[in-house]
Design a protein that fits this description.
Length: about 120
């Protein structure tokens, strides 16, 4: 239940942020596109918003292989929207990837790094 509340709060915070900035926002999270929200504005082209929420106040998130692949192929329009402390203060940070999605930068010049990993599930 708490995880679902974190996700819902994060989606609401990001949606509202982009609506307030003049975008039309469409939820495409159920369509497995590699991002959660499609934001369109007259002044800007489309933005593809991947939303991640955390109940913690520290930033460490994981992207699925589909999300990471989409970010690399669409680095100019992809935004990673991270909502920290999503159950309380809802601190939103928006990052854009470099061309290989190995470095991410927010509007204040703060940078994140990427560690790429590949996993597997082995079963009988």
């Amino acid at each position: 239940v708490e995880r679902l509340q974190v996700e819902n709060n994060a989606m609401d915070a990001v949606r509202q942020f982009f609506l307030d900035d003049g975008y039309k926002v469409e939820d495409v999270s159920s369509e497995n596109r590699g991002y959660d929200l499609l934001a369109r504005s007259d002044a800007t082209a489309e933005l593809h918003l991947e939303v991640k929420g955390s109940k913690a106040d520290e930033l460490q998130i994981e992207l699925t292989p589909n999300e990471f692949s989409f970010a690399k192929k669409n680095h100019k329009t992809f935004r990673l929207c991270v909502v920290l402390d999503a159950l309380n203060q809802k601190k939103l940070r928006v990052f854009r990837p470099d061309s290989k999605a190995m470095q991410w930068e927010d509007e204040n010049g703060n940078r994140l790094s990427t560690t790429e990993k590949i996993g597997a599930i082995i079963y009988e």
